[in-house]
Amino acid sequence: MSTIYTLNWGIMSTGGIAETFTRDILTNPESRSVHDICHQLVAVSASSSLKKAEDFIAKVNAPGKVNAYGSYADLVADSSVQVVYVATPHSHHFQNAMLALEAGKHVLCEKALTVTAIQAKKLVATARVKNLFLMEAVWTRFFPSSIRIRDLCNSGVIGDIYRVMSDISYANGQSGRSGRLDFPDSHRMVNLNLAGGALLDLGIYSLTWIFQILYHLQPEDEKESPIVTSALNKYKATGADDNTTILMHFPTHGTIGVASTGFWTTTGVNEKNEGMPSAIIQGSEGEIHVIGPAFKPQKYLIITKGGVEAISCEYPADLERKWGHGMYWEADECARCVRDGRTESRTLPWGESIAIMETVDKVLRDGGIIYSEGITSDIFDDKSPLNTGGSW
Ligand SMILES: NC(=O)c1ccc[n+]([C@@H]2O[C@H](COP(=O)([O-])OP(=O)(O)OC[C@H]3O[C@@H](n4cnc5c(N)ncnc54)[C@H](OP(=O)(O)O)[C@@H]3O)[C@@H](O)[C@H]2O)c1
Questions:
Q1: Contact criterion met (CB below 8 Å) for 245 and 258
Q2: Which residues does the UniProt record annotate as the domain Gfo/Idh/MocA-like oxidoreductase N-terminal (predicted)?
Q3: pLDDT tens for each residue of 249-266
Q4: 220, 242 Cβ separation under 8 angstroms
Q5: 91: Cβ below 6 Å to ligand 1?
Q6: What is the mean pLDDT of residues 304-324?
Q7: What value does the mean pLDDT of the chain take?
Q8: Best probe residue, ligand 1, of 45, 47, 143 (max atoms within 8 Å of C-beta)
Q9: 25 alpha carbon to ligand 1 midpoint, in Å?
Q10: 37-45 and 67-69 as β-strands: parallel, antiparallel, unpaired?
Q11: Which ligand 1 atom sits nearest the alpha carbon of residue 139?
Q12: What Cα–Cα distance (Å) separates residue 102 from each residue in 50, 89, 214, 386?
C-alpha cells in the first residue's frame, strides 16, 4: 500500500482569502477522491497581533496543535512549517514571499504574484537558487474543469483555436453616474498604496483564460509571449484602473486574446449568469463557453456543428466540515510538487507567471498607472513595513 504524503502549512495573514483557503486544506482529501497526499495546518500568523492568529485558528476549527504568531518573521522561523501560503495584499507579496524563501520555506503566493515583472523574476531566481517550490496561487488552473477544457482544446474538438476572449467584472458603483465606487478609497481594491486596481486584483483571472489556452498550450519549443496593446480608465477618486481591456497578439501562432476587467459592469449579470460568458474559446469548428465567474466557473458549453453539450463544474464538499470551495486542488498541486522534489508546477510554470506579469507591466505603464517605490522595489528588506504589519 502506498503511503500518504502530508504537507505542513503555515498561513501568512488572517484575512478573507486566508480563511477560505485554510478551510479548504482542512477538508478531507478523500471527499475529492484524492488519496495520495493530505494537508496539515501547523502555524498561522497575523502581521501585528497574536490574538488575531489565535482567533483565526479557533474560527477555522483546526485540529491538532497549531502555532499562533503575531509576526510574519516568527512564522517563517517555525521549523514545523514546510510551505507558507502568502495571503496578504499584492503590494506585500514580493517582500512577504521573499521573507519566506529566505527562511528556507516553500511558497504558495496569492495572485497577483507581485506588483512588477522584475519582482516576479527575483522571486523565481531566489526559489531556483535555494531549490524551493514557488507557485502563484491561481487556483482556477487546477480545477478538473480547467484541465478538461485544456484537454478539449488540445484534442481538436473545436478545431484549431484562433481566439480567446475573457472578462471578469463586478459592478461596484453607486447609483447612476456618481463616479463613486462603493469601496472606500482606502480599500485594497482601489488604494494605490496596496497595489489597487481592477487589473491586478480581478484581471489576473481573465488573463488566466487567455494564457492557459493561447500560451500554455503552445509547444514548449514554440513559446511566444504576446504583443500587448490596451486601454484603461482611471478611477477619479484614487487613480487606480477601473475599466481595462487588453489585446494580446501571438503572431507566430496566429492567435489573439482579449481580456477585460472592471468595476462598473458585471460579467454574467445575474445569479443565473445570464449574460456574457466569462470566457469564450473560439476554434475553426466550434466554441467553448465558460459560464460563471472566471475564477470559479459553474459550467461550460461545448458548441459544435453537432449541437451543444453542457457540463457542470463540481466543487466537492467535505461532508463532515460541510465545506469545499475549490482551492484545495492548488494545495494538492503544492503537496505533490514538494513530495516529488519539484520546485515548479507544470500547470503554472514560473515562466508563465512572469509572462503574465510582463503583460500587466506593459498595460499599467501604457495606461499611466504608477505605483510607489515602496511597493515596486525589488530589493528585499526583512524589516520593510510590508513585512512588519504596515504599508506605504
Ligand atoms: N484566490 C482568490 O480567489 C482570491 C480571492 C480574494 C483575494 N485574493 C488575493 O489574496 C490577497 C489578500 O486578499 P484578501 O481579500 O484576503 O484581503 P484582506 O481580507 O484585506 O486580507 C489581507 C490581510 O493581509 C494582512 N495585511 C498585512 N499588512 C496589511 C496592510 N498594510 N493592509 C491590509 N492588510 C494587511 C492582514 O492580515 P494580518 O493582520 O493577519 O496580517 C489582512 O487581513 C490579495 O492579493 C488578493 O488578490 C485571492
A1: yes
A2: 8-135
A3: 999 999 999 999 999 999
A4: no
A5: no
A6: 97
A7: 96
A8: 47
A9: 18
A10: parallel
A11: 1
A12: 23, 20, 34, 15
Q: Choose which residue among 55, 110, 187 to substitute to test ligand 1 binding: the one with the highest number of ligand atoms within 8 A of its C-beta.
A: 110
CA distance 16 to 370: 27
Domains annotated for the chain, with CATH where assigned, are 5-138 (3.40.50.720), 144-314 (3.30.360.10)
- Return the pLDDT at 176: 60
pLDDT at 335: 98
Is residue 139 lining ligand 1, measured as CB closer than 6 Å?
yes
Q: Hey, whose CA ends up nearest to atom 26 of ligand 1?
A: 88
> Is residue 111 lining ligand 1, measured as CB closer than 6 Å?
yes
Question: Alpha-carbon Rg of the chain, whole angstroms?
Answer: 20
Look at residue 1 in the predicted model and tell me its pLDDT: 53
How far is 332 from 307, CA to CA, in rounded Å?
35
Q: Which residues pair with 303 in a beta bridge?
A: 287, 308
Could you tell which of 14, 17, 139, 206 is best to mutate to test the pocket of ligand 1, judged by most ligand atoms within 8 Å of the CB?
A: 17
CA 13 to centroid of ligand 1, rounded, Å: 7
The answer to whether 78 touches 46, Cβ cutoff 8 Å, is: no
Per-residue pLDDT, averaged over 18-24, amounts to 98
Mean pLDDT of 15-37: 98
Neighbours of 22 (CB within 10 A): 25
Identify the pLDDT of residue 390: 77
Q: In what order do the strands lie in the sheet with 279-283?
A: 227-234, 241-250, 255-262, 161-169, 279-283, 286-291, 299-304, 307-312
Q: What's the pLDDT at 25?
A: 98
How many Cβ atoms from other residues are within 10 Å of residue 312's Cβ?
11
Instruction: Please give the number of the atom of ligand 1 that sits closest to the Cα of 48.
Output: 39
Confidence of residue 173 (pLDDT cuts 50, 70, 90): confident
* CA 220 / ligand 1 centre spacing (Å): 34
* Cell numbers that stand for 123 in this block: 522571486
Output the DSSP codes for 306-352: TEEEEEE---PPBTTTTB--STHHHHHHHHHHHHTT-SS-SSS-HHH
Q: What Cα–Cα distance (Å) separates residue 315 from each residue in 24, 148, 201, 323?
A: 11, 14, 23, 9
